[in-house]
Design goal:
Strand order of the largest sheet of chain A: 1-4-3-2-6-7
CATH superfamily of the largest domain in chain A: HUPs
Number of strands of chain A: 10
Order of helices and strands of chain A: EHEHEHEHEHHEHEHHHEEE
CATH architecture of the largest domain in chain A: 3-Layer(aba) Sandwich
Largest sheet of chain A: 6 strands, parallel
CATH topology of the largest domain in chain A: Rossmann fold
Strand content of chain A: 15-25%
Number of domains of chain A: 2
Oligomer: homodimer
Distance between the termini of chain A: 34 Å
Structural class of chain A: alpha/beta
Number of helices of chain A: 10
Chain lengths: 285, 285
């Protein structure tokens, strides 16, 4: 496995791989890898002859007061996990290489980034779209693989790739969960024991929504009412939002006729967690 | 010469050319070709084995009340000129292919687009950056060639390509002028005879600035005063701006120590013309 820091070196490496007729698959991450990431990497391994994983905590997608500084980092551990999962290249650029002085170009995906996390995390998706656009140009993948846990991110990246005519296949993979249902996230490392227990109520809420849906409920307000009631009054928890949206436009959906997703963001102590459930899919908890 | 309308078909064509080990050079245009464009194409022919020219009047770079509808178009004439200049492919997409319903992704180059034309043409450079980003992804060039007549556009595209890590060499070519000095532009077709005569004052102003510079003047305000005086009171002419800027940041420069450009926009009747002079270069009029 190679570890490449320089964007230029990565780009030259990828260009050679492509010119050699090989397919590149790519998993962009912020590191502190967990089983969810490894799942994406294994899928990447199947979809290309050269598997690149980026590890980069991207400053432009963090807002003021968010957890950019304390976001967990452990490149040595990440490297071992990546290597044993068959990764060919880790790309871990520096901030000064990615955003040199006078950096000033940003990609905005305008509509699908308005709702849900876009309501509170101003500028977040601008940062996500911009860094993915940059990483795609550097790594030159044929296929890029994202987790569905970050549902809005996946929708925004798909829109960017389609709108900007990027010749990249975007693959979304199901959320990987702990045995007790908690969606895997690098931010779970922030949780103290009692918070970890309280956090189980996110996936429990999704199960509740699934049950209501399977029982025939199609009124979004009714499902949201039950979900919200379920999360109310639980110590350490504060619901930021729970919404039911069209899976493509991410606009609020009053009635579950079209493909719909229940998406939520919840503070557990000071840790902000997100989770979601696409109605009709099997929620494996 | 091939004419390709579909973005998908163009992209597949280009991917095959690249996989065959050939270099693609690219000249993006809005059509209604003139000698300035042909100049870019001849340069493109030297820099690649496959020369692609796009002809597309991009709606997103025109503001409300600007000349999108009446912008001159003549694909048949353009095709003949391109073919006889050695162009391999004309790419002329449709608006519905470039901007389908729910299109929502835009590229913003923030700083270098603020001054000069950015002061009056709100959204213009957002449209330019976005369409060039799209065209680059579709045509997949190794080299793209732009004219220096649209100086701010060239600076913005260079910044976008560098900031977004696009693996494309951007080449800027000197402005091509009519025998009497008027910078070539498709918009010159709008000019009536008396307007055509009045328009000569743009290049005359550049010559005046060059003379002052060659005589040792380094105070931007003094040069701008002379240029402005020179354009004042001429019937049919209305100066929008004349500014002296740093050639990289496009910020106003009070003193000509660094590389500087004199850029101007002038209305001649209802036609808006731009021209510029990079101090120290030879102005060939």
């Amino acid at each position: 496995m190679r570890i490449i820091q320089s964007a230029r070196e990565m780009q030259e490496f990828s260009e050679k791989i492509r010119n050699g007729g090989k397919k590149i698959s790519f998993v962009p991450t912020m590191g502190y890898l967990h089983e969810g990431h490894l799942h994406l990497m294994r899928e990447g391994g199947k979809r290309g002859e050269c598997l690149v994983v980026s590890i980069y905590v991207n400053p432009t997608q963090f807002g003021a007061g968010e957890d950019f500084e304390r976001y967990p980092r452990d490149l040595e551990r990440d490297s071992q996990m990546a290597e044993s999962t068959g990764v060919d290249v880790i790309f871990c650029p520096t901030n000064s290489d990615m955003y040199p002085a006078h950096y000033q170009t940003f990609v905005n995906v305008e509509e699908v980034t308005q709702n849900l996390c876009g309501l509170s995390r101003s500028g977040h998706f601008r940062g996500v779209a911009t860094v993915c656009c940059k990483l795609f140009h550097i790594v030159k993948p044929h296929t890029a693989i994202f987790g569905k846990k970050d549902f809005q991110q996946l929708v925004a990246i798909r829109r960017m790739v389609e709108d900007l005519n990027m010749d990249i296949k975007i693959v979304g993979m199901p959320t990987v969960r702990e045995a007790d249902g908690l969606a895997m996230s690098s931010r779970n490392a922030y949780l103290k024991e009692d918070e970890r227990t309280a956090a189980l109520n996110l996936s429990r809420s999704l199960l509740l929504a699934q049950k209501l849906f399977n029982d025939g409920q199609r009124d979004a307000a009714e499902i949201l009412k039950a979900v919200t009631e379920n999360l109310k009054g639980i110590p350490l928890l504060r619901l930021e939002y729970a919404k039911i949206c069209d899976t493509e436009t991410l606009k609020d959906l009053p009635h579950l006729g079209k493909e719909a997703v229940l998406a939520m963001a919840v503070y557990v102590g000071k840790t902000r967690l997100i989770d979601n459930y696409v109605f009709g899919e099997a929620l494996e908890i």
